[in-house]
Write the structure tokens for this entry.
Amino acid sequence: MTRTRRTALALTAPAAGALALLAATAPAAAGPAPAATAQEITLAVTTSPQAAGVPVDAYAVTGVRTADSDPAWAAALLEPADPAALDPATAVLHHVAGAWEVVSLGTAGVGCEEAPAAVVADLALPC
């Protein structure tokens, strides 16, 4: 009975090491932004020069999330009020000098060149 117990512990130790290694290398995930941050990000998107040509009531800012790998980076979805008139878009923002700033906004390749690779992966940006 003791031998079985030692064998089980011997098998468990390498498995625990592998699990710890996987946990250490697993990418962080983006999490929903806290309410106050989501409001700041929404305001940054709706007042951004990149969105200036689109009336604010033509879209809703949704899915606001911050990168766990670097919470100074965030992404949000721009959902059109009328999908026949406007395509959905993504905004990538960076918190600089105490304010959120839209660094990229569009329908493809958004944030791919502006955000660090870890943030791109974390926010699941399709680059």
